[in-house]
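Take a look at this chain, tokens included, and explain the fold to me:
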Amino acid sequence: MSGLLGDILEFNRSFVEQKKYEPYLTSKFPEKKIVVLTCMDTRLVELLPACMNIKNGDVKMIKAAGGFVSTPFGGIMRSIIVAIYELGAEEVYVIGHYDCGMSSVNPEKMKDKFVARGVKSDTLQTLEYSGVDINRWLKGFNDVTDSVKGSVSLINHHPLVPDIPVHGLVIDPVTGRLDLVVDGYAKKTEDSASAGE
């Protein structure tokens, strides 16, 4: 076997044989009892955990393009709900980042790339005739802060999410600075005050 896959599998054999996995042993339950939704951006792979003091086993990490919830009953929301009910997460952190590629995705240009890579135009038309709004599905966001607020709101108002803190932050992908957008503790306090009136 050659190529990158061959290199990865060769390294993996050595990794397992030399028991280099031992420092990473942990349980499936998040020690800090939080679930983090963030972007799949390569700059965040090590930077985000480092700037939040997150170690292996501390959190449930969900990564997706743009790090936002686009639909209330899609895979991202399902993962958040499973992390809460099955894995003991007690808080949710939605963490977007500045200079995100999803803020500049152009659905029309993306469709051109589909065709250039061999997807037939007929396939795209069939999807659209079947009710798939490809432009909406591919659309990112214009402002990362608004995107984070929107995801936090969707999670907070989801009928299957219990009353837990849902925080919103934006990370600088160069320095790791976190800017607070939504303080989930403040919302809980406001909700408690409103309920007492």
The chain has eight helices and five strands. The longest helix spans residues 3-17.
